[in-house]
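Comment thread on ticket #2218

A.B. wrote:
> Attaching the input chain for the structure job we discussed in standup.
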Amino acid sequence: MAEIVIDHVTKRFGSFTAVDDIDMRFADGEVACLLGPSGCGKTTLMRILAGLERPTSGRVLFGGRDVTALPPRKRNVGMVFQYPVMYPTLSVAENIALPMVHDRAVSATERRRRVDEVLDVLDIRPLAGAFIEDLDSGTRQKVAVGRAVARQSEIVLFDEPTTNVEVNAKLQLIRAFKLVTQRLRQTIVYVTHDQTEAMTLADRIALMKSGRILQYDKPQVLYNEPTSEFGGWFLGNPGMNFVSARVEEGLVRSAILADPLPAPATLPRGAAITIGIRPERVRMTGEPVAGSVPAILVDQAIGIAGRYLTRARIGETEIKVNTERRPPAPLGGTVHLSVPRERLMLFADGTRFTA
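C.D. wrote:
> Ran it. Output below, let me know if you need it in another format.
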């Protein structure tokens, strides 16, 4: 078992709290992504898992074993950094094999088998005899991945490995990571600020902000059912629309609603709340339809993957709309927006209201 348990871990640097009482677990054989903006604490948490930082308080357990005080070399963890450390005088195959050379539990035959396996999985067998200095940055990072997983450590940690890789090589790396994780089923924790990487690679995503885990769930759940305004904003391109609303006489009223919604009974009268709706859930028409409100088109359409991203204004409220077709009116013209009630989310004080 290689389940990772983070037991109320806090890490402070002086008066600054980088990781704030995180209590969670990553399941055995799971690919978990730590996702969040720069400075949210994800790399610090990764370093704690690797043994490069000691928590101020709390424990870390691997497979039920308390490793909090163990140095990195005693944790049986592989790690891939942003900048791979390679040995230029060794070939690709030799670099991959290096961590196993002095491992008495791995025979020479088994070492060769493991090297062959990762060369095949990562599609770099033709480069087995090449030297590192002859490779581009993306291929070097592939070699670093191969070296980390060939050890067959119970746990492999990835610290933003595609950050310094050009776009085409980055796409190849993401595909390679996906193949590795599907084939070898090690417990993997992957740090990234790139939501596309996280949504592509992860079995589950831990969304971080200000040293805390806001939500930990499957990618589609984080996208479709965010528990916070931050989650709705951070995930999506663009993120969710947030429209101010108010509660009056048991009804939720807002500029985006042609007709008010019944308010949850526990929301106090006069409460200031926010309605969240994804841009692709907003319907835009040239003529009024049931449940629509008029709006002024304020931004030109931008074609993205065959879709069009536009902005329309209802009074002072601006709404992002992502549609399959061009807007049905010119810039400055009137369009009509409608939203499916089952796709609306209510937020109070930044937290989704589900009662």
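A.B. wrote:
> Thanks. Noting for the ticket: The CA atoms of residues 220 and 300 lie 30 Å apart.
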